[in-house]
Each structure stands twice: as structure tokens, then as C-alpha cells.
Amino acid sequence: MSLIIAEDLQKEYNGSAERVAALRGVSLEIEQGEFVAVIGPSGSGKSTLLSVIGALNHPTRGRVVVDGIDIYALPAERRADFRREYIGFVFQSFQLVPYLTVVENVMVPLAVSDASSAQKKAMAMSILESVGLGNKSNRLPDELSGGEQERVAIARALVNHPPIILADEPTGNLDSATGEGIMALLLALNEAGHTIIMVTHNQENVRYARRTIRMRDGRVGA
Ligand code: ADP
Question: Which H or E run includes 103?
């Protein structure tokens, strides 16, 4: 069975003036270990799809089944557990906590873990090494460049070793060299077995993915 199965997803938002149909019947399957790019015009529903797959945004209709779990059939609390265990989010806005150091930021998702604080710190340091920031772990976020902050956000998303990484414009505000570094990191993670779904406008980024899903007007297709 596919790792991720989306069945006839529909999502309507009730805006102040009108209802917006962001997803109009999206069905897709993603296998364990895939690296998928989601492309399409602005407003076509890409971010909505990512947040629905990531258990963050209840669809109006349809199902998402991940590893055999029908995620929106779970009570909210168990859905939050599911998210922590399975999903790492890399968003465009990094939303690091400004008054925590780099290593403390990366440890945030471990707050609920049973590990000792020394173990948590060791896990955070190990992932920071892998994104090339082991030597900046005691800095505050605003003492880092934009690309470094993005790498901290990626480290934070990965510290739990989630099997699925959802990335929304991961190189959005970065210069091209830094963006390439982020893409190389995502590629290495994919080669290590993580399943990646990435929303992007950037043609260079699309080349890293092995499959492209094109969205238009809330549907998948040409
Ligand atoms: P994309 O990522 O392709 O730009 P989105 O999924 O962000 O598309 O948005 C799809 C549509 O849903 C757009 O018309 C957008 O304005 C609308 N939309 C997205 N989020 C909300 C929200 N929270 N409330 C109301 N409308 C929204």
C-alpha cells in the first residue's frame, strides 16, 4: 500500500466575502521514499494540499490515509501525536523562537519526548552537525544569515526523524547558492529514506524531484 493516499480531497474556506474552493477533488498516492514536487500557479491550492496531507488542515470532504492511518478520523489529540511522529514541516517563514539559542530551537519538538535533557541536546547537536551548523549552536537566530536560519528550521523539522518531510517553498527567500545547499540537504535526506513533498515555483528545485504534480484551480492535472 502507498505511504500516502489522498482520496477526493475537497477544501472550502469561508472567507469574509465569499467561499473559496481551494481543493476541488484531489486524489493521489505517494510511495515511501518518493521525492515529489508540487507546482502550479499561485492560488491553485498547493499549500492547502500540503497542510491537509500534513494533518494541519481538516478537509471539507475526502480522506488522507498515511501508513494505513485515516488521519482525520483520529481524535484531535491523537492527530497531533501522529503529526509529531510522522511529519516534518519546512515552511517559508522559519518562525524560530528569537530568544532561544539555535540548539534550544532545534530541541523544541523534543519537549514531549521521554529522553533526558542531555540526550535531547545530543540529538539536536547531531542534526545541527548534519546541516553544517554544529559550530553555531549557541547563537541566537538573529545572529545567523537567512540561509542559516532556514537550515536551523530544517534541523528542527528533522530532529524527530519524521518519515515524511513537507516543504513549502524551502528556498523562497534565499540566494541561489544557499538555496542549492538546502536542496542538496533535502536530496540527501530523500536518499536516506525520507519521503519528501515540496511545493515550489522554482524550476531549478523541480529538477531535484523524481515526480512532479501540477495543480490548477484546486485540481491535479495538466
Ligand atoms: P497556493 O499554495 O497554490 O498559492 P493556496 O492553497 O495557498 O494556494 O490557496 C488556494 C486558495 O485558497 C486561494 O484562493 C487562497 O486565497 C485561498 N485560501 C488559502 N488559505 C485560506 C484561508 N485560511 N482562508 C481563506 N482562503 C484561503
Answer: helix 102-107
H/E segment holding residue 146: helix 146-158
Which residue has the least CA distance to atom 5 on ligand 1? Answer: 45
CA-nearest residue for atom 13, ligand 1, is 43
Tens digit of each residue's pLDDT (9 = 90 or more) over 120-172:
999 999 989 888 899 999 999 999 988 889 889 989 988 888 999 999 988 87
Tell how far the Cα of 2 is from the centroid of ligand 1, in angstroms: 27
Contacts of 73 (CB under 8 A, 6+ apart): 63
Residues 6+ away with beta carbon under 8 Å from 49: 6, 9, 23, 26, 38, 199, 215
- Report pLDDT digits (tens) over 163-210: 999 999 888 777 787 788 888 889 988 999 999 999 998 888 999 999
Report how far residue 78's alpha carbon sits from residue 219's, in angstroms, rounded to the nearest whole number.
Answer: 29
Beta strand residue intervals within the chain, DSSP E: 4-14, 19-30, 35-39, 61-66, 69-70, 87-90, 164-168, 195-199, 211-216, 219-220
Grid coordinates belonging to 183:
536542496
The CA-based angle 130-32-26, given to 5 degrees, is 115
SS3 75: coil
Query: Distance from first CA to last CA of the chain, Å, rounded?
Result: 26
Gap from CA of 32 to ligand 1 centroid (Å): 28
Task: Name the grid cell of 212.
Answer: 512532479
